[in-house]
Amino acid sequence: MSSTSELPRRLIAWGAALATGLGFIGVMSVLLTDGRTAAFLLDRNSTVFDYPFTIQNLMWLIFFGALGEVGARHRRARVEALQLDEALLPEDDGTMLRLRDLGEIRTRVRGQEDFFLQRLVARCVLQFQSSQSTDRANALLNSSLDLMQHEVDSKYSLLRYLVWVIPTIGFIGTVVGIAAALNEAGAANDFQDPALLGELTRSLGVAFYTTMLALVQSAVLVLAQNVTQAREEAALNRAGQYCLDNLINRLYEE
User: Fold this and answer.
1) How far apart are CA 113 and CA 123, in angstroms?
2) 175-184: long-range pairs with CB below 8 Å, 24+
3) Across the chain, what does the average pLDDT equal?
4) Which tens digits make up the pLDDT trace of 69-121?
5) First-last CA distance in the chain
6) Which end of the chain has the lower number of beta carbons within 10 A, N or C?
7) Dist CA 186 CA 208 (whole Å)
8) What's phi and psi for 113, nearest 5 deg?
9) CA-to-CA distance for 155 and 153, rounded, in angstroms?
10) What is d(CA 142, CA 136) in angstroms, rounded to the nearest whole number?
11) Distance from C-alpha of 242 to C-alpha of 98, rounded to nearest angstrom
12) What's 47's DSSP letter?
């Protein structure tokens, strides 16, 4: 999977995720027309927004979009892990690699440097070919692993932003709901009306639903993000260990 093909795959994942989000909102809108569940999940009978343009529905779209990003990163981690099955390097107990053996290995990984394993192999082989020093090849492996670790972490910047923005939107929805409820109470003609307090309390309860839903969605996304990032980092670590065991430790300085 090259870098030119990864972007279309991510766009497809985002499109599918947003379509799923719209489908979820549509189904829930049909099933939940009234009651607390409808107010909590969708703000179905909103007095502030014209349904379906509610804060909850916006959060659902962002939530499913973030799940699409998690899915794309998960597939990438799986593909990276599968590269270890390509047998790019000798894995027996006795083979040593001399300078003349490295040309074939470099040819084998050429054009596949978008993957962690192939990139590490290509860099270490090139370093040994130019310096004929195992120590320098090993130092390059370590520095490359550090750089790739930062590369993996940077790819989760968008997901971290989405995890942050959902609670932020939830808080905004709560503030807007409180403001609307207080404005409605202030416009009442009879402040002694016993029903006014009950109506104000119900409106404030609905206002806090956005924050509650946002916190639940954020908790799900944080778990999914951490699990997926750990899988991708584990694939990188295994690629580094594979290069150390089957390339660096087999290099023979003539």
Assistant:
1) 9
2) 176/48, 176/55, 176/207, 177/48, 177/203, 177/204, 177/206, 177/207, 177/208, 177/210, 178/204, 178/207, 180/47, 180/48, 180/207, 181/207, 184/47
3) 86
4) 999 899 999 999 999 998 889 888 888 888 888 889 888 888 888 899 999 99
5) 36
6) C
7) 20
8) -70, 0
9) 5
10) 10
11) 18
12) S
